[in-house]
Amino acid sequence: MILAVLVVVFSVLTPNFLKPGNLSNILAQTAVIAIVAMGQQLVILTRGIDLSVGANLALATVMGGLIFRATDGSGFMVIMAMLVAGTAVGLVNGVVFVFGRLPHPFIITLATLSICRGLALQLSINNTTMRGMPDAVLFLGETSALGIPNSFYVVLGMALIVLVMTKSMVWGRWTYAVGGNPKAAVEMGIAVKWVLVSTYAFAGLCAGIGAVVLSGRTGASSPLYGTLLELDTIAAVIIGGASFLGGRGHIGHALIGALMIGVIRNALNLLNVGVFYQMIAIGVIIVVAVEADVLRSYLEGRARSQAARAQ
Predict the structure, then answer these.
(1) How many CA atoms lie within 13 A of 66 on its CB side?
(2) 66: helix, strand or coil
(3) CA torsion sign, 242 to 57 to 50 to 277?
């Protein structure tokens, strides 16, 4: 409903907002956020957080750029390099958090944020941008079909996969159980540790896929990509209605949240609002969304208490 209201308001404020070309731009601009937010959604579903996704994406693009130079432009090798790099970082996050018995994933993902960004800068051979990507990558990130960016089809494909994983597979029910009540999940015999590791690995894979799309859209790789992407993805998930308390959320939440961020930024650009004010607006929206989540949890708890007393 909020997204629909935003679309109506912005279409009134600026006539260019609903033009097909601009709508296509919104889909292309939000594709990376939406893809990475899907992984972040699963992590938040288990009461965790992944602060490394932006730096992970940057490192993945740099790895793809290096493989592009080393293999004379092999599209398969470049894409695989990005996916493997992203998944590897996510796997490290999960393994260290779970088996290192860290009190919160904030610690390891903050550490890998710094490590990945440093590695990306070191491996990029003193280049802030490495030009060139194979046709397969450009096809996914730069071209369109039927007037819709191919990157949006990647988003739809990923959304379908995540939907099947969470709604039709035992792993998905386990993930909700771990986030809803970790102690009860252990007592039920669920492999809580490996569920947590798998969610962080999948979040890393999503960062790798986002790297493919972003590299294809820009035709380049850069250690500077993904700056503040972790905040955008967290904002998308929370704005969409998921809960930091775990066990609550749907893949549609992440997609709607990402689209809302894209719509807000695009409309503010059309209205010539400065980028600094855009950052302020997104920050305010995050605070409002988190407070709404807290209020919702309080009201639901109060309603359950009243229902229990009535019985």
Answers:
(1) 19
(2) helix
(3) negative
124 secondary structure, DSSP code: T
Q: What is the pLDDT along the chain (311 residues), one digit of tens a residue?
A: 777 888 888 888 888 888 888 888 889 889 999 999 999 999 999 989 999 999 999 999 999 999 998 887 788 999 999 999 999 999 999 999 999 989 889 999 999 999 999 999 998 877 778 888 999 999 998 888 888 899 999 999 999 999 999 888 999 899 999 888 888 888 888 888 999 999 999 999 999 999 999 999 999 999 999 888 998 898 888 877 777 777 677 788 788 888 888 888 888 888 888 878 878 877 787 777 677 767 777 787 788 888 878 77
- Tokens representing 20 are 């097909």
Residue with tokens 């579903």: 45
**Total residue length of the chain:** 311
Q: What is the DSSP string of 169-231?
A: SHHHHHHHHHHH-HHHHHHTT--HHHHHHHHHHHHHHHHHHHHHHHHHHHTEE-TTTTTTHHH
* Cα gap 233→254, rounded to integer Å: 8
